[in-house]
């Protein structure tokens, strides 16, 4: 009972352990996170030898940075729930015109998902604990250099990129970079501006 009461007061931010954005990434309850996006390589056009070289380069990154975490996600929205809803509606609908529209919607979503199937985003995530600002800066540059030296097209993610990643990861929005840092912040600013006009 006591545990349930305690959990009720937590925000989503507290539940997932995110405290705030930092100059280089995110501060969480388990350390600072630095995010790096890595451009995907189309291995279907590479020779067997070149694929082996790419794998060896990835192994070199992982041996140089053994604590690095890797995430792969769609860089676009998933439409599975909408497609399931359309399928249910189609099975229940008796009006032939509505059925035709539902089929067109489902076909459009299939086409969209096929186009975006190759739109993957690959991230390397470094977790740093107990380091000062200067140490974080040095570590951020060192990690990017190690990944880059192995032939990967890498870029450290900035705040808008991280916000977009989190929004996609949690299925909230495709426009995460436009979300306010604090929920409702945009309304607070608007009311301040209105009061200033009086």
What's the arrangement of secondary structure elements?
Elements: H1 2-8, H2 12-16, E1 18-21, E2 26-28, E3 31-38, H3 48-64, E4 69-74, H4 80-92, H5 96-116, E5 120-128, H6 133-149, E6 154-156, H7 159-169, H8 185-197
Antiparallel strand pairs: 1-2, 2-3, 3-5, 3-6, 4-5
Helix pairs in contact: 4-5
Task: Give structural notes.
With 198 residues, the chain is an alpha+beta fold. The chain folds into 2 domains: 9-76 and 120-177, Alpha-Beta Plaits (2-Layer Sandwich); 77-118. The chain is built from 8 helices and 6 strands. Strands 1, 2, 3, 4, 5 and 6 form a 6-stranded antiparallel β-sheet that branches. Helix 4 packs antiparallel against helix 5. It is flat. The mean pLDDT is 80.
Gyration radius from CA atoms, angstroms: 22 Å
Derived from helix and strand composition plus strand pairing, the structural class reads alpha+beta
Mean pLDDT across all amino acids: 80
Return the domain count. Answer: 2
Q: What is the top-level CATH class of the largest domain?
A: Alpha Beta
- CATH third-level topology of the largest domain: Alpha-Beta Plaits
CATH architecture of the largest domain: 2-Layer Sandwich
Number of helices: 8
Beta-strand percent range? 15-25%
* Ends apart, CA distance between termini: 49 Å
Tell me, what's the shape?
Answer: flat
């Amino acid at each position: 009972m006591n545990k349930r009461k305690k959990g009720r007061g937590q925000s989503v931010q507290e539940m997932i352990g995110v405290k705030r954005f930092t100059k280089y990434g995110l501060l969480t309850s388990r350390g600072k996170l630095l995010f790096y996006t890595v451009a995907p390589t189309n291995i279907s056009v590479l020779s067997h030898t070149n694929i082996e070289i790419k794998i060896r380069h990835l192994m070199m990154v992982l041996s140089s940075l053994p604590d690095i975490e890797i995430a792969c996600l769609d860089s676009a929205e998933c439409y599975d729930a909408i497609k399931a809803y359309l399928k249910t509606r189609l099975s229940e609908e008796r009006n032939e015109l509505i059925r035709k529209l539902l089929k067109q919607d489902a076909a459009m979503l299939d086409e969209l998902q096929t186009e975006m199937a190759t739109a993957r985003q690959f991230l390397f995530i470094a977790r740093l604990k107990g380091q000062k600002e200067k140490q974080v800066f040095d570590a951020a540059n060192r990690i990017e250099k190690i990944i880059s030296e192995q032939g990967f097209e890498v870029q450290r993610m900035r705040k808008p990129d991280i916000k977009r990643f989190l929004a996609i990861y949690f299925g909230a929005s495709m426009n995460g970079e436009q979300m306010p840092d604090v929920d409702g912040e945009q309304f607070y600013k608007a009311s301040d501006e209105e009061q200033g006009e009086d």
